[in-house]
Amino acid sequence: MCQHLSVEPIEAWPGELRTLSTGRRVFVRHTTPSGDGAGGRTPLVYVHGLGGSSTNWTSLMRELHDDAEQWAVDLPGFGESPRGDHHTVAEYVADVIALLATFDRPVHLVANSLGGLICVHVASRRPDLVLTLSLVSPAMPQYRLPWAAQASAVMAVPWLGERILRAAAAIPAEKQAERLTAMLFANAATIPVAELTFAAEQRDRWTAQPHADAVLLAALRSIVAQYTRPGRQSAWHAASHILRPTLVIMGARDALVGAWGRTKWRRALRYARLVYMPNTGHVAMMEHPRAVAGVIREFIHDTSRIRTSASTRRTLEQGMRHPVAPLAEERTHASN
């Protein structure tokens, strides 16, 4: 039984196509808070995961609507954004950096899954663009994989992925939706029907694009390639050099990113705040938007009270490696 009844159809936040300094075009959705004063607060910028889009953040943006301006991007080839020449983690890192450089201040950067992996590199490379970093089930390399991640890894094998996608196209749409729901959510029954319908419509709209399969496989293979990157080029090395306050939200029933990754986060970034959410899958911001909004709101409030030599600098000195926020803790957060 759903915890929240929703009778009105869900509408995506409006947006527009922008051309980045990388030369690639991205669709960016935007919300402006109502009321006086909120417009002057630090913006929140969202980056989605593999196969997702800016509409994955619709419910969370609704919950945080009056907190600050919010921006959600469709990475090239996903959502409403045209495809690019390449669809790799490195290319997407450059795109996100180019987007953040258009703001007149560092932002609160929020990301999920592949977006989390991308934004770890962004925050490590350009801390001057990021005030805080919030990661929802970041797709960092880990060698103990949940069942859905194992299935996804098989698709990264050359030629095999194309065959799997062709075979999947013959499966009835309802069956495909059931499989995807099982991968993404711990318990879809807790999500209002309107929300699930909206998510399914948005994904169907993207998968109907002729480039969808090629973009999906290219991005997936780039994620898998992160497992082979040498030490100083690895995602975990980048994570260990993040200077900004970092929040990591992990779902206890995440079928794509194992919650046991919390241990590695504690080793890589001692001052990260780790939040463990029971009865939660891979996209906590869609499954429990109110709870995730509360966690992010509290995190931003707590970090705003901390001022250090690093956190007050717009441009950081090379080699500056001290964490900026003494937020080291792990907590369990009940879902809404």
UniProtKB/TrEMBL annotation:
Top-rank lineage group of the source organism: Bacteria
Organism field: Jiangella alkaliphila
Sample GO molecular function, one term: catalytic activity
Span list, region Disordered: 310-336
Pfam families per UniProt: Abhydrolase_1 (PF00561)
Cross-referenced InterPro entries: AB_hydrolase_1, AB_hydrolase_fold, Carboxylesterase_BioH
UniProt name for this protein: Pimeloyl-ACP methyl ester carboxylesterase
Positions of the AB hydrolase-1 domain: 43-289
